Amino acid sequence: xxxxxxxxxxxxxxxxxxxxxxxxxxxxxxxxxxxGPAGRxxxxxxxxxxxxxxxxxxEQMSCCAACGMYFPSSEAVRVDGRDxxxxxxxxxxxxxxxx
Length: 99
Prior knowledge:
Layout: H1 2-26, E1 61-63, E2 70-72, E3 77-79, E4 82-84, H2 87-98
Antiparallel strand pairs: 1-2, 3-4
């Protein structure tokens, strides 16, 4: 009988350890677990019930006037009201206008 009690206690400890480890690993994915962008609290379902990753704030994208590639607007090279992905494309377009 004593062996049974010991095995049950060991099983309970193992299950408890695994659950606590899984909860620690899933904490960043829990909705409402941490404040989101700009300090907002991401409310929705009760805390700990949803495991959807809360995305960071998305940055506005621009399209290069020379090659059509999309890139973050913060990296844009702006010439004559047009966005370019690099200085080379901005110069390339201005050379075509001049020549």
